[in-house]
């Protein structure tokens, strides 16, 4: 099983200022998903901005089989920081690698 980088999430306390910056500096468009999340459109890779305390961007990998990916990540020594959860469009879990990198794996919703 090969997992590929599919999405990058940015975190910004001032979501509106970050969105305005990315639109002006990079020419990206956005789709609103409620008051605290923007999906980035036209960046060359999927991405989003979440209203939250500043943190490093989160790299999100895509898997066809989330349970198999979870088992593989655990077996490689990762700390699971957020157990699998559902969200509109899919399911995901988050982890920290032995080197300290925060990442996530998601799978698309069925049908």
Task: Please provide a written account of the structure.
By secondary structure, the protein is α+β, with helices and mostly antiparallel strands. It is 20% helix and 47% strand. It has 2 helices and 8 strands. It has an 8-stranded mixed beta sheet, with helices on one face. A hairpin with a 4-residue loop joins strand 3 and strand 4 (46-51). The longest helix has 12 residues, at 15-26. The radius of gyration is 15 Å and the shape is globular. The mean pLDDT is 94.
Distance between the termini: 22 Å
Number of strands: 8
Overall radius of gyration: 15 Å
Residues in β-strands, percent: over 45%
What's the gist of this structure?
The chain is built from two helices and eight strands, in the order βαββββαβββ.
């Amino acid at each position: 099983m090969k997992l590929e980088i599919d999405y990058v999430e940015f975190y910004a306390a001032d979501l509106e200022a970050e969105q305005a910056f990315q639109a002006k500096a990079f020419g990206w468009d956005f789709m609103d998903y409620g008051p605290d999340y923007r999906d980035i459109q036209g960046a060359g890779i999927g991405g989003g901005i979440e209203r939250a305390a500043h943190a490093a961007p989160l790299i999100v990998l895509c898997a066809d089989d989330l349970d198999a990916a979870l088992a593989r990540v655990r077996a490689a020594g990762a700390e699971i920081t957020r157990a699998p959860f559902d969200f509109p469009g899919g399911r995901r879990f988050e982890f920290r690698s032995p080197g300290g990198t925060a990442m996530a794996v998601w799978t698309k919703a069925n049908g």
